Amino acid sequence: VVVIHENRGLTPHIEDVARRAAAAGYLAIAPNALSALGKTPANEDEARQWFSELKAENNLQNFINAFAYLKTRTDYNGKSGCVGFCWGGAMANNLAVNVPELKAAVAFYGRQPALDDVPKIKSAVQLHYASQDERVNAGMAAYEEALKKVNITYEQYVYEGAQHAFHNGTSAARYNEAAAKLAWERTLAFFAKHLK
């Protein structure tokens, strides 16, 4: 399972998500998109600004390369998945489009891929949205319709009363414990169905 961080780089929250995936029995890897720039700044707001310096095509390729790395591992079972949050949720959707061997892609409050690219998806997709996230949710209905149109296996959940980043336990302002726990239970069940 490739764990993809938010637009703040590899933070303690994402490291914890990778640990939880590993504790659930998965080979988990959490690449840092900002490593291409040398490091992740300690200040998360500064890290967010650094993302504008990344070239989208190089960044996508770096995450695709994570799947190539997994294939070199003797403990890899041949089934790969990903889970991403915010910026990483959008990356999870893009990996579903660009990694044909991907079996399961989970996007937490991530922007949707271009609708013309949806027919390229070969994996099952699970989508978690916060009801109070108008920016990301603006593309939700069209994405769902596109997934249905080409018969992609998908699950979509909207967490009432939750805000963008509801899964991030390090954000007191946005964390929604009930939604976060339920979404993670659903994620693990989805991975168990498609990756074991």
Main sheet: strand order: 1-2-3-4-5
Question: How big a fraction of the residues is strand?
Answer: 5-15%
CATH class: Alpha Beta
Q: Report the helical percentage.
A: 40-55%
Structural class: alpha/beta
Which topology does CATH recognise?
Answer: Rossmann fold
Question: Could you say which overall geometry the principal axes of the C-alpha atoms support?
Answer: globular
Radius of gyration: 16 Å
The fourth-level CATH homologous superfamily is Alpha/Beta hydrolase fold, catalytic domain
Q: How many distinct beta strands?
A: 5
Order of helices and strands: EHHHEHEEHHEH
Structure keywords:
196 residues; alpha/beta; 7 helices
How are the elements arranged and paired?
Layout: E1 2-4, H1 12-23, H2 44-50, H3 56-70, E2 80-85, H4 87-98, E3 102-108, E4 124-130, H5 134-137, H6 140-149, E5 154-159, H7 177-195
Parallel strand pairs: 1-2, 2-3, 3-4, 4-5
Briefly say what this structure is.
By secondary structure, this protein is α/β, with parallel strands linked by helices. It has a single domain, classed as Alpha/Beta hydrolase fold, catalytic domain (Rossmann fold, 3-Layer(aba) Sandwich), CATH 3.40.50.1820. It contains seven helices and five strands, in the order βαααβαββααβα.
